[in-house]
Amino acid sequence: MHGLEQLTLNFVRNLLLLSHGILPECQHWLGISYVPYHPNFLSIMATITGETARAYNDLVEINKTAAKGYQEAAEGVSSPDLKSKLSELSQQRAQFASDLSRQASQYGINPENESTIEGVVADAAAAVHRGWINIKSAITGQDDSAILGECETGDATALQTYETALRSSELPVEARNIIQKQHGEILSAKNWVTQQKGTH
């Protein structure tokens, strides 16, 4: 179900419950769940499009893959300092995915259930996997510089996907803000990785 359809369904469902005098705090007695919706429902209804849903889906998938890639990198490098930092970046990307999923749910978008939209998520996942595809061979070679190079490539792919999302004119303001913030932090991480690659 697309974001706008789900959001509208939640809104109408809540109205029906309230119109029958069933208050949210009492509904659990009846086994009925009150579905929270975004407080600015009326103002964002017109802006939630398939394009917005795809942006969330792509970015959640990319961050999940990056979290796994950075964890593998942390386990593969020999430097204790690198292990610590790469593990931290893995946790950062997992948090990014969680934050995006939580915000998407406010718009009635469930990234876990939107993976078939025009094949875009599959394309994004394939792209980011290409970015991390050589991480295992780099680890096998026990070359910290090569491992960092794969992290750099993975982040370059992620940044491209973020920039594609940010070029959309249909993103709600709140969505744009969180995506822009995450883009900046990924760019900072990529620059750090590039710098470290030159010293290992």
UniProtKB/TrEMBL annotation:
Residues 53-167 form the DUF2383 domain. Coiled coil: none annotated. It holds the Pfam family DUF2383. InterPro entries: CHP02284 (IPR011971), DUF2383 (IPR019052), Ferritin-like (IPR012347). This is PA2169 family four-helix-bundle protein. The lineage of its organism: Bacteria, Pseudomonadati, Bacteroidota, Cytophagia, Cytophagales.
